[in-house]
Amino acid sequence: MKIQQLSIFVENKPGHLAAPIRLLAAEGIDLRALFLADAREYGVLRMIVSDCELAVARLTAEGFVARVTEVLAIEVSDHPGGLAGVLTALDATSIDIDYMYAFPCRNAEQAVLLFSFADVDAAIAKLRSVGINPLANDDLLKL
Amino acid sequence: MIAELETSIVDCHEVSAPDYRPLDELRALQLARLQQIVGRSYQNVPLFRQRMEERNLTPADIRTLDDLARLPFTVKADLRDNYPFGLFASPMGEVVRLHASSGTTGKPIVVAYTQEDINTWTSVVGRAMAGCGLHRGDVIQVSYGYGLFTGGLGAHYGAEGIGATVVPTSGGQADRQIMLMKDFGVTAICCTPSYFIHLIERAAEMGIDMKDLPVRAGVFGAEPWTDEMRRHIEQAGGIEAFDIYGLSEIIGPGVGCECRRHAGLHIFEDHFYPEIIDPETGEVLPEGAEGELVLTTLSKQAMPMIRYRTRDITCLLPGSCSCGRTLRRIARIGRRSDDMLILRGVNVFPSQVETALLQVEGALPHYQIVLTRAQGLDQMEVQVEVTPHMFNDRMGALQAVHARLQAALDRVLGIRVRVSLVEAHSIQRSEGKAKRVIDRRNA
Fold first, then answer.
1. In 3-state terms, what secondary structure has residue B195?
2. Most buried residue, A21, A22, B363, B391, by most Cβ within 10 Å?
3. CB-based contact, B395 to chain A, within 8 Å
């Protein structure tokens, strides 16, 4: 149920975003989703990639600070109101969301919402109680 | 015209008389004072007495000035270890002033003055200023910080002592400093050299050319500077720049100062006896050889310092100065024998940065200190490489680590520094000893 997300520390300087991305490209790792959270001088690059473990191993070996973090993915229909419906359901469970981002699926009918919760396991249980089933890692990568 | 006449006779200023003592008289005075101060320290300072006893020495063993070399050194750590009052040789009832500067572990270094010490201090700063051609009738702006730091009050008393008019602006508020210099007809300023450069630049922005103001001399100290800075200051400011030297442990500013020949700094050695030693072996070096400056306070009552290791590297200049003063001279201080940094007059050791980083992280991340100068003020940036332990995909958690590092450094150093989180391995590794400090202040 949990999705592996790759997180990398990057400084906010010219060329610093490209370096880790180039490394992933050289390893043939596919990027499914990407989100850059930035403070003024540095940022956290969050990505869903085809092989998270390999990505962290390669990045760490090259001196980057990278780690795997667990997030949850929820599939919604890519139409007006799709996100609103999920958030309304989430509201009812009063789960704290640390952050979220989204990407469209290749079939253009569906979109995937990625959520980071303080307590992932509690979040899964609560989501299920309102009829939402988070995607499995393999299913997400196929979308 | 009158001002010019007065300028030409300043070397006859009455406070300067001790600067011209015949050498035999000066040496005899130094020996008499040395014997007295060693006796006083032996009587009143347990640490000094213990160290003398360990060497089987008594004050009676000091028969010549050369015997000074037999005495134990005093180091900054001694002041820290005996915080706050352990090295005082006077009862508190006789102490009229305390000053303090930062130490290596958060606790400051405390120094004390009796009324006689304040008088001595006033006279040596007065002699320094007289040597710079300043005297009664001059309007002297003191832009050193007033307070625990010795710079402001030291310069203040000295300037008053020679009968000059003092404008005690303290540091900061550049626009007001410039306005007062203009409106009050300030003829001399005491501050750090970099702050004066800032004032020149700020004045230009305000449409004022410093060269058009009546200020003709600057007495600059409390931070290292270069000949290039001096040339820039003199040309852009239209003034004559003087280098003044001092340290709180000895008395504050006024240990030594340039005269108008600008051929080294005369040490007021009737009060502060200079030696140059090899910083490794402690051996006294001959005149002209470069080494660490060691000073002995010959007349200080509240807190005598016997053979205090300044960690400043210089040499005693051979020969006499063409100004006629018999006082020996040291070359401008170019560097130190330890890694202490002087930042806006505050002493900072890289080891303090490590202490702070360890407090937050538990393990020492790779770091580098970068010193720069902006608007005449020293700036310190501590770049810290993010470790996997520090890193978090939640921005809030990452920023909390950043804030904790900032708070720990502010607390330990006692001054505001900038903390930057940088990528792992982004700080250049050097072979062998890590290069922890990049100093771009005089670049």
1. helix
2. B391
3. yes
> Is there a single domain that holds both residue B311 and residue B347?
no
Cross-chain residue pair B424–A9, CB shorter than 8 Å: yes
Q: Residues B200, B73: one domain?
A: yes
Buried b (16+ CB within 10 A) or exposed e, B288-298: eeebbbbbbbb
DSSP state letter for B338: S
Question: Given a cut of 60, is residue B152 above it in pLDDT?
Answer: yes
Lowest mean pLDDT among A91-105, B148-162, B254-268: A91-105
* Shared-domain flag, residues B315 and B377: no
Query: Side by side, which strands form the sheet with B437-439?
Result: B418-422, B377-385, B367-374, B437-439
- How many angstroms away from the CA of A28 is the closest CA of chain B? 24
Interface predicted TM-score (ipTM) of this complex, two decimals: 0.85
Say whether residue B420 is in contact with chain A using an 8 A CB cutoff. yes
Q: How far is CA B138 from CA B70, B243, B253, in A?
A: 45, 19, 19
- Report pLDDT for A82: 84
Q: How far is A118 from chain B (nearest CA, A)?
A: 10
Residues of A with CB under 8 A from a CB of B: 5, 7, 9-11, 16, 37, 39, 41-42, 44, 46, 60, 63-65, 67, 69, 98-99, 116
Q: Looking at this protein, which amino acid is placed at residue A139?
A: D
CA separation for the pair B227, B232 (Å, rounded):
9
Q: How far is CA B405 from CA B96, B129, B183, B281, in A?
A: 39, 43, 45, 38
Q: Which residue of B has its CA nearest to A39?
A: B395
| Domain assignment of residue B428, given as a range | 343-439
3-state secondary structure string, A63-129?
CCCEEEEEEEEEEEECCCCHHHHHHHHHHHHCCCEEEEEEEECCCCCEEEEEEEECCHHHHHHHHHH
Substitution target in A4, A5, A8, A9 with the highest count of B β-carbons within 10 Å is A9
What is the tally of structural domains in chain B?
2
Nearest of A65, A34, A27 to residue A48 by alpha carbon: A34
Asked whether the beta carbons of residue B395 and residue A39 sit closer than 8 angstroms, the reply is yes
Sign of CA dihedral B138, B143, B146, B148: negative
CATH fold for the domain made of A74-133: Alpha-Beta Plaits (3.30.70)
Provide CATH code, domain A3-70: 3.30.2130.10
Of A84-98, B250-264, B280-294, which range is least confident? A84-98
**Stated length of chain A:** 143
Q: What is the pLDDT of residues B370-385, one digit of tens each?
A: 999 887 788 999 999 9
Helix (H, G, I), strand (E, B) or coil at B289: coil
Which residue in this structure is represented by tokens 């006893």? B53
A10 close to A43: Cβ distance less than 8 angstroms: yes
CA angle (B419 as vertex; B414, B421 as ends), nearest 5: 155
